[in-house]
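Q: What does the predicted 3D structure of Magnesium transporter MgtE N-terminal domain-containing protein look like?
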Amino acid sequence: MSTAPARVFAARLVGLPVFDPRGDQVGKVRDIVAAVRSENSQPRVLGLVADVFGRRRIFVPMTRVTAIESGQVHTTGLLNMRRFELRSTETLVVGQMFDRTVTVRPTGVVGTVYDVGLERARNRDWVISRVAVQEPGKGFRRKGQTHTVEWRDVDGLFRREDGQGATHLLAALTDLRPADAAAVIHDLPVERRSAVVAGLTDERLADVLEELPEEDQVEILEALDTERAADVLEEMSPDDAADLIADLSPETAATLLDAMDPAEAKDVRRLMSYADLTAGAMMTPEPVIISPDATVADALAHVRNPDLTPALASLVYVCRQPLETPTGRLLGAAHIQRLLREPPSTLVAAALDDEMDTLRPDASIEQVAAHLATYNLVAAPVVDEEGRLLGAVAVDDLLDHMLPEGWRDNAPRPGGAL
């Protein structure tokens, strides 16, 4: 390695961009892989787990890392694009070591691991050299004292532990986007994944579930108690919740729908009533809907909602009462780009695209794709025979259904291996 700090801590490596020799970003660091031989031999750092384009997780050997500096990881560019799989002799530093209960031998202090220091040894191998330990908190909301000690002074670092917590692993995931957090959670051992899921809020878990492969979604949801599973489904977008419930057994699906808030369950049931891979099944029943007397300022206030995807925020639908789907008659849609050019006090009705073609709920996935492509749209309204707005199909939902099953794991990086 040509350039490297004397010591690097694992928590600071997670999320760092990985660059090739040309300066192009090829991925992000997700974890560190260490080889654990015994309690008495210093663990060797074998490499990094990185996400590359298409969210394929690969192994980057430390021999391919040329520099770690300025919040970046640089590589030789010679990377094997085969999907990473953890071997029985290997340990994920963040995924498995964090939150492990250990004892500091010289002092007798008992605490949990919250970070691990990595250094390059004289033989040029990377090794785990330091362990950051936090004692249990004393008193209400008081954090326990922290210690950073030599690896050899720690007992229990490599011992598998039943009921291992997830406090520090959750902290490492806090600043990651849902898709990135989902990539980390996907690779965790079952017991660690369960601990992380238990520590996530319902809203955060819902966001992460939407980014996980279908089999992971089902496995996680079925492991939750009925009340929490229903709460998480309520936090998901109705179309994603409908897709997930459809993958469950009929008995489990019925139980969860009954446990959900009736209003939330009603939207999900309506989406599930449409045939698979149709506009009705793919649409969201919660686009931005306003009345004819709403102003541009009102519309812009609605699209500032941070929970809206960019696609759904691109169009505002003007409808007669009621304004919840199924609405009154759809009068037209206003493009956000047009609204940004209008005075805030102008009525949205004056900026309507009242000639926008609509989709019927039974439109096939091919018809939806052709419609969006023909009119250069990222979202389109879905209406019934009476012209009432039922929802909107966004391009991101369309892609989720058009891409092959397992694309999250198997999508190759454009251009092949580096």
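A (community wiki): The structure tokens above were generated from the sequence. The chain has a mean pLDDT of 88. The radius of gyration is 25 Å.
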